[in-house]
Amino acid sequence: MAEAPLVLITGASSGIGQALAWRYYQAGYRLALVARRTELIQVWAQAQGMDASRYAIYGADVSDRDQTIAACAQCLQQQGLPDVVVANAGVSYGIDTAEREDLEVLAQTYATNVIGMAATFHAFVRPMQARGSGKLVGIASVAGIRGLPGHGAYCASKAAVISYCESLRVELQRSGVQVITICPGFVATPLTRENRYGMPFLMQPEAFADKAYAVIGKARSYAVIPWQMAWVARLLRCLPNALYDRALANRPRKHRHRERVDAMPGQDPRKP
Fold it and tell me: Please, what are the domains in the chain?
């Protein structure tokens, strides 16, 4: 009897990552779940009544490339080569470039959202090429299409994710390895909970996971979810700078890392 397919998901302890894990589990996949907060995944998996033989949990801070590579190597050793790898882990902080400490926030955002994604894919590229199949999925964001006030770190990192995934897709196009870029709009997760501006077409994580699962299954190279945000993204791309600047002139800024309600003194506010 053939072994069930395997999906590896980073940032699997909450939000989109957790919803995707459940969607793939329901579809019969084995799971390799990567996150810093492994105990939360274990509690959640047990509460869902998941079969312990169908999942494994790997602890890693995705901003630490060595930890990430080690977790992926463990997956290869214990569960084998995944059919799908979803680099989902991400952080979102507002920044003020005039504040020296926020340069560190920018660096941390890139370390998780961009370098962490590349480190996640790193362990699987050569084995997938040798096998001639596999899907590498990068979770980007509509925020990567145009810059938003106070949101320079996140917007820039997600723009980098979009370009990085496109580069990798072209590099691997003849190998049988598919690279898929998914740009969520607003999804109700810990990363968006404290936003102080309107979030049109807000989705629940489960609804997003259903649509993302379908996109990955069809191996679409690029998708914006939900479809309404795809039209918003097209409009943003072609809007002249003068009109764009005027439209966002009074938009509230993203909370800086010290302003977030959940960033208490001595507490790491990162969510993945």
Answer: 6-247 (3.40.50.720)
